[in-house]
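can u do me a favor
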């Protein structure tokens, strides 16, 4: 978990269930027609319509709850994207009662995927939900990149392939050249939000952005933009989360009629502070641990909301123990745990190493308590 710091960083066609490029047109969502041919994100001009409230009003609103950033699955020999496993996993999570899914996050190995592969993963996930009784489940898509231009391209490709929201990390590679007082980062988010055909969620994860850590003032300021609708705090800072939740609770109404939908969704980025985030005014979690134990994550939040605090604390302790294994092992450890306990998961793409037998056993044991809880909840469902 990153240190708690509320100041801005110092600026110094399918084949056997596996991908075949180009992307087959038949799997695409009907948001808008797109070519099935793979193209460079810089080909042509980015001249599609900019943000308007009418264009960006989502039909799948973001409700409080548990969101899971899905892992991406690969053939163990070829490392091709395994669309059959993506489909099975998405349906398993939806059936467990989660509120929404996310693709192209840290657990989804977005940095290991081409543009065409990213489009395929999102389209496959959306298709799996739609065809298995979950057409109303929102789908968040990781869209951050180092340039404003490519980030906008990712947002548009996410929209074209069925994504409802874009999760965007701040750029950080050239952070030492950024303008002071977060000016460059704030301008980046506003320009992306102006151009994106889907609403934006801010992704504050210093560990994945060179230590760049948005302050509560930065996030609250960005929340004023009508096309920026939420934030994921993987910084672990509950004080920051509390300030943002409080400041945005009475934000101007966005274009929806559902009283359960917050004006600005504030999510914890790890399962190990699920109820802590709830106490601080957060609306739920977007946490990779849900890949292994979605029911445990959902039940913990349910108990907290119902006022069953002692039960919620007991279950939170199990989540936190399991999340420590996930934090230590990252996507390599999560996949090893899934393989050991669920019978699928496979390996991360190279150059990430495959775990040794001893490492795989260690990850399995790290998730044991959590998996026993998950199995108990599944049997009692």
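np, heres the sequence
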């Amino acid at each position: 978990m990153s240190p708690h710091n509320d100041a801005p960083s110092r600026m110094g066609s399918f084949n056997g269930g596996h991908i075949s490029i180009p992307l087959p047109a038949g799997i695409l969502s009907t948001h808008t027609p797109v070519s099935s041919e793979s193209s460079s994100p810089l080909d042509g001009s980015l001249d599609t319509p900019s943000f308007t409230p009418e264009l960006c009003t989502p039909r799948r609103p973001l409700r409080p709850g548990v969101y899971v950033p899905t892992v991406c699955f690969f053939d163990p020999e070829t490392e091709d994207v395994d669309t059959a496993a993506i489909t099975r996993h998405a349906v398993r999570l939806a059936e467990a009662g989660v509120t929404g899914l996310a693709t192209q996050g840290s657990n989804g190995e977005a940095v290991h995927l081409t543009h065409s592969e990213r489009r395929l993963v999102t389209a496959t996930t959306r298709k799996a939900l739609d065809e298995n009784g979950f057409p109303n489940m929102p789908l968040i898509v990781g869209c951050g990149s180092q340039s404003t231009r490519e980030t906008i391209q990712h947002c548009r490709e996410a929209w074209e392939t069925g994504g409802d929201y874009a999760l965007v990390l701040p750029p950080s590679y050239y952070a030492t050249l950024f303008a002071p007082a977060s000016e460059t980062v704030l301008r980046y988010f506003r320009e992306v939000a102006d151009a994106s055909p889907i609403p934006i969620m801010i992704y504050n994860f210093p560990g994945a952005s060179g230590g760049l850590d948005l302050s509560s003032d930065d996030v609250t300021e960005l929340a004023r933009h009508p096309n920026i609708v939420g934030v994921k705090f993987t910084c672990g800072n509950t004080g920051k989360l509390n300030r943002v939740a409080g400041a945005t609770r009475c934000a101007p109404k966005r274009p929806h009629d559902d009283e359960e939908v917050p004006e600005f969704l504030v999510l914890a980025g790890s399962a190990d502070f699920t109820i802590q985030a709830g106490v601080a005014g957060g609306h739920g979690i977007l946490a990779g641990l849900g890949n292994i134990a979605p029911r445990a994550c959902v039940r913990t939040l349910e108990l907290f909301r119902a006022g069953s605090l002692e039960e919620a604390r007991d279950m939170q302790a199990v989540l936190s123990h399991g999340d420590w294994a996930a934090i230590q092992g990252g996507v390599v450890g999560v996949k090893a745990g899934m393989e050991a306990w669920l019978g699928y998961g496979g390996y991360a793409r190279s150059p990430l190493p495959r775990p040794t037998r001893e490492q795989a056993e260690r990850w399995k044991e790290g998730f044991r308590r959590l998996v026993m809880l998950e199995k108990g909840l599944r049997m009692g469902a």
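The domain at 64-328 is CATH 3.20.20.70 (TIM Barrel). hope that helps!!
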